Amino acid sequence: MCGRDYFMKPARILAIAGSDSSGGAGIQADVKTITVLGGYAMTAITAITAQNTLGVQAIEALSPELVGAQIDACITDIGVDAVKIGMLGSAPIAECVAQRLEGLEVPVIFDPVMVSTSGSTLADKETVAAFERLIQLAMLTTPNIGELAALGGAETMASRGAAYLAKGGDAEGETVEDRLIVPGHEPVIWQGSRIDTRHNHGTGCTMSSAIATFLAQGSTLEEAIEDARDFVRAALLNAPEFGAGNGPMGHHAVR
Q1: Radius of gyration of the chain, Cα coordinates, nearest whole angstrom
Q2: What is the pLDDT of residues 21-60, one digit of tens each?
Q3: Which residue in 16, 86, 30, 18 sits closest to 58, CA to CA?
Q4: Domains of the chain, start order
Q5: Beta bridge mates, 47
Q6: Could you tell me which residue ranges the Pyridoxamine kinase/Phosphomethylpyrimidine kinase domain spans (predicted)?
Q7: What is the pLDDT of residue 3?
Q8: Secondary structure of the chain: what % helix, strand, coil (to 5)?
């Protein structure tokens, strides 16, 4: 039977990130991930990019006021069960986002995007410095190897008292290792065989959006990360093989 009484409302996920014109990463990957996993996707776009599988050709950040207005519009009317933060575009935008989210009692997942899969710089030094407030308010920060180093490494993250997922996809070797570090707890480690593909555009965006969605649906942090890892791996294996460079993953094919 169909009808309102038999319909379970989806978890509401707000993705705050830049737009990827080619659809592989950023807001587009966030919306695909959240939707396929059964969530309701809302967006606050921080920047517009012209990009494809070969790289980023142009970036234009939106005003902090417009970013803040998007966040307010979603939260005050629809409501929100979890937030994912990705590319921010500028230090003032990072500060604006932090101001809007401080005191919000839902899981916040922060993917500290600094460089695209193709190698284009997406955050300058001032923007990275402004990440501090976001790391403090997030339930989880999800840096890759280069991002973790730029944030000061494991020792600095420990001094912040911040929980983070150290992603190992950019490391060398046949095994990919991801490490969950939560202050006061033993590290939780996941390992998996490396999927040999160049179609890996948007893996970080997808991972963080999936974690946020699973948390909003009631999973524990460890469960959310484990299921998000499985989703990313399935999307990598189902990539449509578009483009001449780092192609998009196959979000559409994961069920």
Answers
A1: 17
A2: 999 999 999 999 999 999 999 999 999 999 999 999 999 9
A3: 18
A4: 9-253 (3.40.1190.20)
A5: 61
A6: 20-249
A7: 47
A8: 40, 25, 40
